[in-house]
Amino acid sequence: MSLKDAIYRFLSFTPTLPPEPAAKITQHEQLVQLLDRVHAEAIMPNVDALARICLERDVALVFYEIGGPDPLTDRSAKEGALALGWEGGRVEIGRLTHTQAGKMADEIERSDPGDVAAISWFRRHSEGRLFVLVQAATFCVDFDPGKGFSIAPGTTDAEWKS
Q: Which domain of life is it from (predicted)?
Protein backbone atom coordinates (compact mmCIF):
# COMPACT_ATOMS: atom_id res chain seq x y z
CA MET A 1 0.00 0.00 0.00
CA SER A 2 1.39 3.41 -0.93
CA LEU A 3 1.80 6.16 1.65
CA LYS A 4 -0.95 8.13 -0.12
CA ASP A 5 -3.34 5.16 0.15
CA ALA A 6 -2.38 4.65 3.80
CA ILE A 7 -2.98 8.32 4.62
CA TYR A 8 -6.37 8.28 2.90
CA ARG A 9 -7.22 5.01 4.64
CA PHE A 10 -6.30 6.45 8.04
CA LEU A 11 -8.07 9.73 7.48
CA SER A 12 -11.24 7.95 6.36
CA PHE A 13 -11.21 5.42 9.22
CA THR A 14 -13.93 6.00 11.79
CA PRO A 15 -12.89 4.88 15.27
CA THR A 16 -15.57 3.42 17.51
CA LEU A 17 -15.98 3.53 21.26
CA PRO A 18 -16.17 0.37 23.34
CA PRO A 19 -19.49 -0.09 25.14
CA GLU A 20 -19.71 1.73 28.47
CA PRO A 21 -19.28 -0.70 31.36
CA ALA A 22 -20.70 1.75 33.91
CA ALA A 23 -22.72 4.95 34.04
CA LYS A 24 -19.63 7.07 34.73
CA ILE A 25 -17.49 7.90 31.73
CA THR A 26 -13.76 7.72 32.40
CA GLN A 27 -11.30 10.42 31.41
CA HIS A 28 -9.95 8.09 28.73
CA GLU A 29 -13.44 7.57 27.28
CA GLN A 30 -14.02 11.33 27.27
CA LEU A 31 -10.79 11.74 25.30
CA VAL A 32 -11.83 9.02 22.84
CA GLN A 33 -15.20 10.72 22.36
CA LEU A 34 -13.50 14.06 21.78
CA LEU A 35 -11.09 12.57 19.24
CA ASP A 36 -14.01 10.84 17.50
CA ARG A 37 -15.63 14.27 17.09
CA VAL A 38 -12.36 15.71 15.78
CA HIS A 39 -12.24 12.89 13.25
CA ALA A 40 -15.84 13.34 12.11
CA GLU A 41 -16.00 17.14 12.14
CA ALA A 42 -12.45 18.27 11.30
CA ILE A 43 -10.51 15.48 9.61
CA MET A 44 -13.08 13.84 7.33
CA PRO A 45 -14.42 17.06 5.78
CA ASN A 46 -10.81 18.11 5.03
CA VAL A 47 -9.29 14.74 4.10
CA ASP A 48 -8.01 15.80 0.67
CA ALA A 49 -6.24 18.93 1.90
CA LEU A 50 -4.74 17.12 4.92
CA ALA A 51 -3.47 14.26 2.76
CA ARG A 52 -1.83 16.73 0.35
CA ILE A 53 -0.04 18.48 3.22
CA CYS A 54 1.13 15.17 4.69
CA LEU A 55 2.43 13.94 1.34
CA GLU A 56 4.34 17.19 0.81
CA ARG A 57 6.30 16.51 4.03
CA ASP A 58 4.90 19.52 5.84
CA VAL A 59 3.00 19.30 9.11
CA ALA A 60 -0.78 19.32 8.70
CA LEU A 61 -2.51 21.40 11.38
CA VAL A 62 -5.96 20.55 12.69
CA PHE A 63 -7.65 23.13 14.94
CA TYR A 64 -10.76 22.00 16.80
CA GLU A 65 -12.79 23.94 19.38
CA ILE A 66 -9.78 25.93 20.58
CA GLY A 67 -10.13 27.18 24.16
CA GLY A 68 -9.85 26.14 27.76
CA PRO A 69 -11.97 25.53 30.83
CA ASP A 70 -10.77 28.66 32.66
CA PRO A 71 -9.79 32.17 31.51
CA LEU A 72 -6.02 31.63 31.75
CA THR A 73 -6.04 28.30 29.89
CA ASP A 74 -8.52 29.67 27.35
CA ARG A 75 -6.32 32.69 26.59
CA SER A 76 -3.16 30.59 26.41
CA ALA A 77 -4.75 28.03 24.05
CA LYS A 78 -6.13 30.73 21.76
CA GLU A 79 -2.87 32.71 21.68
CA GLY A 80 -0.92 29.56 20.77
CA ALA A 81 -3.39 28.62 18.05
CA LEU A 82 -3.40 32.16 16.63
CA ALA A 83 0.41 32.05 16.44
CA LEU A 84 0.07 28.93 14.27
CA GLY A 85 -2.41 30.52 11.88
CA TRP A 86 -5.77 29.77 13.48
CA GLU A 87 -8.33 32.40 12.44
CA GLY A 88 -10.83 31.89 15.26
CA GLY A 89 -13.10 29.26 13.72
CA ARG A 90 -14.49 26.21 15.48
CA VAL A 91 -12.83 23.89 12.94
CA GLU A 92 -9.89 24.82 10.73
CA ILE A 93 -6.91 23.21 9.07
CA GLY A 94 -3.55 24.66 8.20
CA ARG A 95 0.03 23.89 7.37
CA LEU A 96 3.43 24.29 8.98
CA THR A 97 6.19 24.31 6.40
CA HIS A 98 9.48 22.63 7.29
CA THR A 99 10.94 26.06 8.16
CA GLN A 100 7.95 26.95 10.35
CA ALA A 101 8.10 23.56 12.06
CA GLY A 102 11.78 24.21 12.83
CA LYS A 103 10.86 27.54 14.41
CA MET A 104 8.19 25.73 16.44
CA ALA A 105 10.88 23.30 17.67
CA ASP A 106 13.08 26.26 18.64
CA GLU A 107 10.20 27.82 20.58
CA ILE A 108 9.46 24.57 22.42
CA GLU A 109 13.16 24.20 23.20
CA ARG A 110 13.17 27.70 24.77
CA SER A 111 9.92 27.30 26.71
CA ASP A 112 9.89 23.57 27.56
CA PRO A 113 13.42 22.18 27.04
CA GLY A 114 12.44 18.85 28.60
CA ASP A 115 10.00 18.12 25.78
CA VAL A 116 12.75 16.57 23.64
CA ALA A 117 10.40 14.22 21.75
CA ALA A 118 8.23 17.10 20.49
CA ILE A 119 11.32 19.17 19.65
CA SER A 120 12.66 16.27 17.59
CA TRP A 121 9.23 15.64 16.02
CA PHE A 122 8.96 19.23 14.75
CA ARG A 123 12.53 19.21 13.42
CA ARG A 124 12.06 16.00 11.48
CA HIS A 125 11.16 16.41 7.80
CA SER A 126 8.99 13.42 6.97
CA GLU A 127 5.64 12.54 5.45
CA GLY A 128 2.53 11.84 7.45
CA ARG A 129 2.64 14.26 10.40
CA LEU A 130 -0.41 16.00 11.85
CA PHE A 131 -0.31 18.48 14.74
CA VAL A 132 -3.79 18.38 16.24
CA LEU A 133 -4.88 21.23 18.52
CA VAL A 134 -8.03 20.28 20.44
CA GLN A 135 -9.44 22.72 22.97
CA ALA A 136 -6.33 23.37 25.14
CA ALA A 137 -4.53 20.12 24.25
CA THR A 138 -2.15 19.23 21.45
CA PHE A 139 -1.25 15.93 19.81
CA CYS A 140 1.77 15.14 17.63
CA VAL A 141 0.49 12.42 15.31
CA ASP A 142 2.83 10.23 13.22
CA PHE A 143 2.47 7.81 10.35
CA ASP A 144 4.29 4.51 10.89
CA PRO A 145 4.33 2.20 7.84
CA GLY A 146 2.55 -1.01 8.73
CA LYS A 147 0.95 0.44 11.86
CA GLY A 148 -0.87 3.51 10.58
CA PHE A 149 -1.10 6.71 12.59
CA SER A 150 -0.57 7.17 16.31
CA ILE A 151 0.38 9.80 18.85
CA ALA A 152 4.15 10.21 18.62
CA PRO A 153 5.89 8.46 21.53
CA GLY A 154 7.15 10.75 24.27
CA THR A 155 5.17 13.80 23.15
CA THR A 156 2.29 13.75 25.62
CA ASP A 157 2.59 15.91 28.74
CA ALA A 158 2.25 12.82 30.92
CA GLU A 159 5.32 11.29 29.26
CA TRP A 160 7.80 14.15 29.07
CA LYS A 161 6.87 15.80 32.38
CA SER A 162 7.32 12.58 34.36
A: Bacteria
